[in-house]
Design brief:
The structure holds 2 protein chains of 2 kinds. Chain A has helices at about 1-35, 55-65, 85-90, 105, 155-165, 175-190, 200-215, 220-230, 240-255, 270-275, 290-295, 340-355, 355-365, 380-390, 405-420, 425-435, and strands at about 40-45, 70-75, 100, 145-155, 190-195, 280-285, 300-305, 320-330, 395. By secondary structure, chain A is of the alpha/beta class. The chains are: A alpha/beta, B mainly alpha. The interface of A and B includes residues 9, 112, 405 and 419 of A.
Chain lengths: ~450, ~290
Amino acid sequence: MIKLKMVSAAVLSLSLLLSGCGSSTKESQSSDGKKTASSEVKITLLNSKGEIQAQLEEAAKEFSKENPGTTLEVIPAAAGQSPFEKVTSMYASGNAPTIAMLDPGDVKKFADKALDLSKEKWVNDAVERSLDVVKTEGGKVLGFPFAVEGYGLIYNKAVLDKAVGGNFDPSSIKTRSDLAELMKKIQKTGVASNLQSPMDWSLAGHFLPIGYSVQSNKSEEVEAFLTNLKEGKEDLTKNEKLNGLLDTFDLLKENNINKKDPMSGTYEQGPELLGKGKVGIWFMGNWAWPQIKGFDTTNGNYGFLPVPISDNPDDYGNSQIPVGVTKYLIVDKEQNSPEQQALAKKFLEWLVYNEKGQDVLVNKANIIPAFKNITLEPQDPLAKSIKAYMNNNKTLQFMVTLPPDHWSQVGAFMQQYLDNKIDRKQLLKQIEGYWKSQQ
Amino acid sequence: MSSQKFFDRLKVQLLFSGPTLFAFFTVVILPFLYGIYLTFTNWDGVSTSHSFVGMKNYLAVLDDAAFWTSMYKTMKYVLLTVILINVVGFFLAYMLTTEIRAKNLFRAGFFTPNLIGGIILGFLWQFIFSNVLVYIGEHFKIGIFSSSWLADPDKAFWTLVIVTTWQYSGYMMVIYIAGLMNIPKELLEAASIDGANAFVRLRKIILPLMVPSFIVCVFLSLQRGFMVYDLNIALTNGGPYKSTQLVSMYVYQKAFLSQKYGAGQAEAFVLFLIVAIVTLIQVYMSKKREVEA
């Protein structure tokens, strides 16, 4: 009996292997023969934005309804798991998702597995520079820009209105001293001015990279700056812009509501304190809106302030906030059949050009799309604020292609700095050391 | 033995051990060998091609100061937890084999933490350390609890030790209870008639006869201590600022977060060697102390 089982197990695994090879030959035949897909086609989408899982499932249902005989399954990546990790394990098990939602820095690692999308219609409607990080040297486009996100100092307008005695105008904050003054005014009303959360991904994934991106308004020059860092040619202690940013960080640190015990803060604390008006300012991005909404006491009056880096109002970075595409979709060409690939392309097109697709994307999932043809206005105040910065061309480069462990390694240094365990000089030396080890 | 007989016996043996051998070979031995192979490459976890880099990854392990720091922390953690788990576990077992009321209730109670998975446990204790204790500390003005233990590097390390002890001492207690029950009653009786008090009985009879249980328990707690990951990630997540990042977590992050598969795998192999050597020494040394009743 056991022997039988063993044999059957061996046969089964062999047959799996064989069928794997077999199906690929069949596929190539069908693509030669230009056979139309008549039978059921099933594709999968790996979603790494957990907060919009339900909305994507809804989109999948709508899409299948319009395309009979097809199903789209949305697979969630566990919270906290990097999409790269999930996708590589799915590839290793021969079960790659048709469409995978990846972080920008990871897209090019899939260059030999991702379908070239440069012939797609939406390529021409994508907003400027949104395809830069997914274009290969050969002109291939590997990814579909899925979501635009931005971050900065989120303010609670009700608190700030009270502090300035009237209608608060975000454009009045152009320098670090403006910000310092505003924070003093907030404190006079009996409310803590700001919260500086200690999460490593926030400190080194978002805050510190502002210091890289303000080095220049040309992305090539920022790239060159990072290359110099890797080669150990940059002396960060003499870098005026990065030091300027850290001066602002000191200001935020000094007035932090958690100043006594800065490391005890959690992400969950932020939306509550800001939403209930217990702090006026919180450094975070538009992804926090669903949580802030849960505590909202101001009827949705929030917006972004730039993180100032100097006292000169004209400096690049003092009136801009970082905005960029943070998620790309890639289509697998290795383990999915041509029919599946075609359907995946159709789905991407559906998201951009179909009314229902747009509706799900913008109205239901609160995504800021990266396409010029979508005219729907975002609903939530933070997305609106980002849109306004985009429309005025007041954006900084969102540093999305830093090395994959930058947020974690450099995040630990930033946390030590936040907790006053190391001084500015040590922090900058450690950052230099991290970059040097990246060669 | 004729060859015919040999094959007959082999057939029978294969019939029974074959399936397990097959499973062991495919899910343990093969990945293990493949893992060793990967340590000589520069694979990033996804690309279809990778090239040989020789001993470079192992040299990188020697150079990686952060790896050795987390290894040192792990050693400290293992030493503390092994001692605490076994002392507490033995003490509980000793108490619960004396004439005490509601013995079974206590046994079940102390064993329960072991049934909760490390992740859940981590979140539970995270809540206790950063909310409950802080609330109590502020309310009753107890200085040591007034700020979250998880926000301070040294205290965060101790939270790991405390929770591990809490989790495993009940499990070791069960093994010790089994050991204690197996000690022949007549020996203890004879000793007490000869005038040995409880302490002498414990030192001269119980402890020597309990050596096999100690071997098992120390081995289990050693190995678990070195390999701890779930509790580490759920309770402190390596923080604050990586000060409590133990070696398993470090290796994992190296391979999957920093996407340095070869280097991470090489570190994992070094870790394997260290754990193997430590546990082998432990088993060898303590085997020599075993006595017969």
